[in-house]
Amino acid sequence: MDKKKIILDVDTGSDDAIAIMTAVLSDELDVLGITTVNGNRPVMNTTENTLRVLDLLRSDIPVYRGCEEPMVAGLMPERQLFRKTNDKKELGGKTVTYHYEFLEELPPSVSKAQDISAVQYLIKALNDSDGDITIIAVGPLTNLGVAMRADPGIINKIKKLIIMGGGCRQTNTTSAAEFNIWKDPEAAQIVLTSGCEILLVPLDATHRAYVGSEESMKFRQMGTPVGIATADLLDARIQAYDLMQPIECAPYGSTPPHDALAVCAAIDETVLRDVRLCRVDVDCGGSWADGMTIVDPRVLTDQPENVHVAFNADREKFVSMLFDILGKKNQEDR
Keywords for this entry (predicted)? Predict the structure, then answer.
């Protein structure tokens, strides 16, 4: 069976790291390249974190450093005023957060990023392709938005675009918005209305695909570098979620590794449930709803439906996929 060609677009923090490991170790995916973007942390950090993960995997997949700032939102500091600020807390003299400056679980990288930028790479790779590349974007959509503006022709060369971002009933950064979309609303609107075939994996689905402490312990008991790293990342996320963002549909001691669900959906879309074709737009107004993912639930929408949206997920299947892929016995030989 031919592997599915993919490009990963990431802002590597803890859940991106698990997503990268899942994609690289999957037998179904051929990761052609990884592009990084400013998001969970500055792009210098997200690039370094990405390289650390690939070094752990002994992988030579090329990494391309992407955009350092959002397209427009960062030009107006007042647009940041509505953001929820409790993304870190002190506990026992230690800072607890969802994404530390660097992946402390992994040593500094030895490998280096490529010389050309993420935007240049995306345009070249897509134009040189046979239209057979799926892009999995799990951070702010700045790289893709800029690339589409620079060369609109690439839109027709994207086989499929799987995006982790947004939320209909669930938000995490403001009362209206999820982080990836909120960080660069203009880029998100460009991408979502581009005409690509798009599958959106929002918080509505990822919050239901949680991983708990018992499963983290099983990863640790594997005793492999990947199993131990996965457990370390999950444990840090569980602590942060329990302290700052308990999930109503998950028990205490759980965390959603959001980005890994988007990767698993690229492997087997049945890991998602209640997927509907909807009209989706993004609020770019700069006020209370800035960055809001606007999903039109009506049968007759004002604008054509443009995005397949997953409103739920099969948690058992998701966790099973993670164990199967990240628990490969031959991973140390890669």
Answer: Glycosidase, Hydrolase
